[in-house]
Amino acid sequence: MTERSRSPYRPTRRGRGGPAPQARPKDPARRAAYDVLHAVQSRDAYANLLLPVTLRERDITGRDAGLATELTYGTLRRQGSYDAVLDACVDRSLRSVDAEVLPLLRMGAHQLLSMDVPQHAAVSTTVDLARRVVGHHRSRFVNAVLRRVSARDLDEWLSVLAPERDADPVGRLAVVHSHPRWMVQALADALGEDPAGGLADTERLLAAHNERPRVTLLAKPGRATVEDLTAEGATPARYSPHAATLPEGDPGALRTVRQGRAAVQDEASQLVALALTRVPVEGADRLWLDACAGPGGKAALLAGLVGQRGGRLLAGEVQPARAGLVARAVHRSVGDSARVVVADSTRPPWRDRGFDRVLVDAPCTGLGALRRRPEARWRRTPDSLTDLVPLQRALLGRALDATRPGGVVGYVTCSPHLEETRRVVTSVLADRGDAELLDAAPHLPEVPDAAVDRFAQFWPHRHGTDAMFLALIRKH
To answer: Which end of the chain is less crowded, N or C, counting CB atoms within 10 A of the terminal residue's CB?
Structure first.
């Protein structure tokens, strides 16, 4: 990547007596990345939502857009490692560094340690940006710190800063692969690894979290096919019969996506919904419920499938704004088969025992989507489970109440954390005598190695998908 991508902006010539020329924005890619990183840090913005809007509003395209994307996501993914390096290069605690300055230091560290940018260019462009956004005085501080960072490459820094493998294997992985320590331990537990016996599989997972994922698309059943997507340059996905992938580029540029006949959705998200639809049920199979439907990806898939069977989907979402996203996602589904309601599924407006199939895609820590939402690893704490686990149990219990005898519930989280996956399911079923856990494996023939102990668990490093969890439960 070149050290300075050409800006799409052009200055205007000033004619005699004409208006003053417009200032040409300098280094728009780095400025856009800085603004997004600062918003993520200061007001808990989501990079995957804010960055596309920023690029579009500022008309940043091509190589500049690619540079801004790499600077934003690369910096967020490796933030933990960079903070360890920066902490060794500042004269005081990194926590005392101004909130406006810290994203500059992290961006500069990313260019110096992980990008093919010459050292002088990485330092000078970051210092130039610092002068414009934080002033000359603080830019001198940025310059001094980044020159210290440039004294070693990333491997050399990590060999100095990371704990010894035998002395503290969890701490070492946390520094080397840029994850909070508690998260490394939780993921190791989910993989069934103990630090005393080695964490090789955990390390592969953490490394996968720091890789850029491919864009996966859903061809909405009854409205588009995978062949429609491949005709626009996509490639059929590995597992899901409704999925195709893009190696790069903006999915919004595809006509099928612009028309609402396809949408971005991870392959594992598609498969857990498909598995629910494959479980045999006796009697009627015409009324399905998506109890936590926002933002609507799984609802769009379910609406298409139930519409093809002549049935209907009720999609409930507690937040009105997200319910609006669901409505757009299911718009013009087969037979207009979906109805969207704003509803709290722990206190639902629908009757008990009324649905043949119920999906509970429960709110969770999101540890399964760290490739796509890298900032989540720095926002979540072990305390996040305090509120989430009781909510997950309540949602699953009410979903079972809503299911008719003989019907089936799919409990899904985008997290592999044991507390919000299998332990939620086992604790709820232990208090009920009207439901049983089914074996997920027969309903996911495409991915036999995802099934474990009757559950299904996808992994980025094994399947190239988000770490989605699925339990299938039959109502007696």
So the answer is: C
pTM: 0.91
Q: Which amino acid is at 339?
A: R
> Is 449 annotated as contributing to ligand binding?
no
- Asked if residue 475 belongs to a known ligand binding site, the reply is no
Q: Which fold has domain 28-149?
A: N-utilizing Substance Protein B Homolog; Chain A (1.10.940)
- Tens of each residue's pLDDT in the chain, 476 residues: 333 333 333 333 333 444 444 444 689 999 999 999 999 999 999 999 999 999 999 999 999 999 999 999 999 999 999 999 999 999 988 989 999 999 999 999 999 999 999 999 999 999 999 999 999 999 999 999 999 999 999 999 999 999 987 899 999 999 999 999 999 999 999 999 999 999 999 999 999 999 999 999 999 999 999 999 999 999 999 999 999 999 877 898 899 999 999 999 999 999 999 999 999 999 999 999 999 999 999 999 999 999 999 999 999 999 999 999 999 999 999 989 999 999 999 999 999 999 999 999 999 999 999 999 999 999 999 999 999 999 999 999 999 999 999 999 999 999 999 999 999 999 999 999 999 999 999 999 999 999 999 999 999 999 999 999 999 999 99
Nearest-Å Rg of the Cα atoms of the chain is 24
> Is 407 annotated among the ligand-binding residues?
no
Annotated ligand binding at 294? The verdict is yes
Sole residue written with tokens 């603080």: 138
Quote the CA–CA distance of 413 and 415 in Å, as a whole number: 5
Alpha helical stretches, state H, 279-433? 297-308, 320-330, 376-379, 384-402, 422-430
Q: Is the peptide bond before 25 cis (omega within 30 degrees of 0)?
A: no
Look up 364 and say whether it is catalytic: no
* Catalytic one of 190, 414, 450, 467: 414
